[in-house]
Amino acid sequence: MPSHRVLAALSSAAASTLLLGACSVSTSTTGAEPAAVAPEKQLTIGFVNGNTIEFHTCLQKSMQARAKSAGVDLLIAQSAMDPAKELSNIDDMIAKRVDAIIVQTVNIDALEGA
């Protein structure tokens, strides 16, 4: 099983990739819509958002639009810049057995102890 540090790095990389088009709700640079998920394989992604400032809100809206166009369920939790709440939100996503978790972290150092 990968270490928590590796998982945190992967989550940060995934969020960074999404950030490149965060304020755009365009679903593709080629103009093609993403393929929808097959009904028998419904995916659920958890998004733990660290704050509610404009940048974070923009990222969240973009993720919601992309998830909707791809037929993916997106569960969102707000951490309100509270590292303890962030860890609780991550634990909640794990308990809900989401397929993947993307964390726009409050503080990467706060995740190390988890």
UniProtKB/TrEMBL annotation:
Keywords: Signal. The keyword Ion transport does not apply. Residues 1-21 form the signal peptide. Residues 50-113 form the Periplasmic binding protein domain. It comes from the Bacteria. InterPro entries: Peripla_BP_I (IPR028082), SBP_2_dom (IPR025997). It is found in: Cell envelope. Belongs to the bacterial solute-binding protein 2 family. PANTHER family: D-ALLOSE-BINDING PERIPLASMIC PROTEIN-RELATED. This is Sugar ABC transporter substrate-binding protein. It comes from Streptosporangium vulgare.
